Amino acid sequence: MNQLLNNLKFHKPFFKLNTAQIEILKDPVDFYVNLHKGIKNAQKRIVWSTLYIGNGNMEEFLIESLSNQQRRFEQLRISLLMDYYRGTRRDKKDHTTPLDHYLYLRMQNLYAQNMKLGLMRHPFLPQLANMFEESASREIFNVHHMKWYIFDNRVILTGANLQEQYFINRQDRYMVFHEANEIADYLDDAQSALLQHAYYVDFDSNSKFDPLRAQPFKRQQYFKEFHQTWKIFKFSYKEAAEIKSDDEEYKEQQQAKVQNKEEENDDTQQEQEEEELSQEEMLQFYEKDLIVEQKIQERKEQAKLILNKSFNKGDVQNIINRLEKALYKDEERELDEGEECTVLITLHIPYLQTDEDKLVFMRILEHLDQFTQVTWASGYMNFTKTIINFVNNCKTDIKFVTASPGANGFHKAGKAKSFIPLLYRNFELAINKPIFEYKKNGWTFHTKGFWAELQDGSTMTIIGSSNYAERSEKRDNEIQAYIFTQCPMFKQDLKKEQNQLFNYAEKITKEEILNDPEIKINWKIKLLSKIFKSMM
Questions:
Q1: Where are the strands (E) in 73-172, listed by range?
Q2: Reported pTM
Q3: Phi, psi (degrees; rounded to nearest 5) at 52
Q4: Cβ distance 477 to 145 under 8 Å?
Q5: Contact of 338 with 20, CB cutoff 8 Å
Q6: Statement: residue 464 has pLDDT above 50
């Protein structure tokens, strides 16, 4: 492990954690519960980066909780970042967009000045992309695919988006990093830098507008400044923190002086204000807070109805109990019972020449022969030629897990997209290692990850947003976390996570793929695979 880490020294910063600080979540409901738990406990910051948020009741329940938390903590800062095209795609049924939730959140909020909303869009896309207004076709060129969900110093890294399926029956990976203040600060800084180069929403809360027609997005023109903004990440975290503190120290001193003056008059002013506050105004205040609580309860009941469609009554009650526990009961977690681990965060933004993840992952692949065993998962397995060459020429025991055509996210996605699962099935033929296809009734497979055991007995895993596919490398914005440790307990937890996937996966051979009577790989599929490979 040390030899491998030495070969990755070119990338900084490295974060040191205790493995007990990392909690591996099991399923989509765990993910949903932990989002609510994070909101409930956040008092300083909530920082989300995602592809999009859905329009269902479970998502609205989440947004209501977010809004209510900021009402309770005036100082709570909310930063939201998502993809421009996916965020403004209009639903054909109810004609809403994912952006509408965020607009509602800000318009309902008492402290909107503490909220930032940005939408990432490729700055150099051809005009052709704008011809597909409100359509999913625009997303072919590039999307902001990074996912992190920060609540104060708690960080959730996953490949999941904020949409109903990802909360119920779309399997992904999820890790919660507890009390990981350095990682939280790092990703918070990254999001702040990205927000400076994103479209941002600026509107009068009293006005109603169509975000696709009006001009709420004000693009920052100078993307070259991005690299200067991110110079801080070329240093170690400690050095970066010192650089930040130089700028923040003066601000804090000035704020302290102002605060001291304000506190001198606070007591007398508060007494006067309390006397002046009429009974009618008090009632209005509590009525507003009661309305928010009622909305949360309504959303929770609606979420329960959604769960009833996918689970039996016993499961639904169990899920609701878990949710209630997350919202109303505090849990303590022992954070010093594990062993040290090293965490490496990489970002990948092709159009900004930020290819950290590609550089690090290629270095990992160069040392594949140091691994004794590897499990590699991708919901959309369409590897680049470079990756395929590394895989097929190494002697390491590698097992791949991917979605079966029926568990592919594009299964039953409509006539225009119905052929996509067949293309991914065809891409499997390029791999000369064992492949397992995930099949679970009513579920789709969105998991992506890398689990490896090294010759010295240590282990590593990669969790993030990348599918290791052609478009992951050449088109989309991605984030990955590389975790290295010798902790046997954490190694056991990772093994359980892998077993959970293999419990619903069946090995498939090339012969079975080629001779499948229901899913035929004909010349049309092979031709389409070549045409669309770089977009998938």
A1: 77-83, 115-120, 148-151, 154-158, 170-171
A2: 0.80
A3: -170, 170
A4: yes
A5: yes
A6: yes
Question: SS3 of 476, please?
Answer: coil
> What is the model's pLDDT at position 392?
92
Q: Given pLDDT bands bounded at 50, 70 and 90, which one contains residue 304?
A: low
- CA 63 to CA 82: how far, in whole Å? 15
| pLDDT grade for 428, boundaries at 50, 70 and 90 | confident
**What is the distance between the alpha carbons of residues 378 and 411, in angstroms, rounded to a whole number?**
16
Name 149's bridge partners. 48, 156
Strand partners, 162: 53
- Tell me what percent of the chain is helix, strand and coil, each rounded to the nearest 5: 50, 20, 30
Classify strands 115-120 and 77-83 as parallel, antiparallel or unpaired: parallel
CA-CA distance, 235 to 424, in Å (whole number)? Answer: 40
Q: Which residues pair with 80 in a beta bridge?
A: 48, 117
> If we measure between CA atoms, which residue out of 141, 134, 70, 60 comes closest to residue 104?
60
Closest CA to 82 of 62, 103, 109, 60: 103
Burial class (CB in 10 A: 0-12, 13-18, 19+), 24: middle
Which spans in 95-174 are helix H? 98-108, 164-168
DSSP 91: P
User: How many residues does this entry show for the chain?
Assistant: 536
Residue 14 predicted with pLDDT over 90: no
Q: Where is 379: in which H helix or E strand?
A: none
CA 11 – CA 236 distance, rounded (Å): 9
Phi/psi-derived region of residue 486, left when phi > 0, alpha when psi is between -120 and 50, beta in every other case: alpha
Measured distance CA(505)–CA(522) in Å, rounded: 25
DSSP element (H, E) containing 375? strand 371-378
The pair of three-digit structure tokens given for residue 459, joined into one six-digit string: 């282990």
- Domains of the chain, start order: 20-124+131-254+292-328 (3.30.870.10), 340-535 (3.30.870.10)
Per-residue pLDDT of 107-145, as tens digits, reads: 555 455 677 877 887 766 655 555 555 556 666 666 788
Residue 218's pLDDT is 37
Beta bridge partners of 311: none
Cα 88 to Cα 33, 97, 199, 364, 391, distances in angstroms: 27, 5, 12, 37, 38
- Cβ neighbours of residue 100 under 8 Å, at least 6 residues apart? 55
User: For residues 173 and 446, what is the distance between their CA atoms, to the nearest angstrom?
Assistant: 8
- Cα–Cα distance, 459 to 22 (Å, whole number): 15
Average pLDDT, the chain: 76
Report the run of H or E that residue 4 belongs to, with start and end.
Answer: helix 2-6
- 55 to 89, 299, 528: CA distances (angstroms): 11, 12, 32
What is the rounded distance in angstroms from the CA atom of residue 255 to the CA atom of residue 276? 29
Give, to the nearest 10 degrees, the angle between helix 279-310 and helix 57-72: 150
Q: Tell me what pLDDT residue 73 has.
A: 87
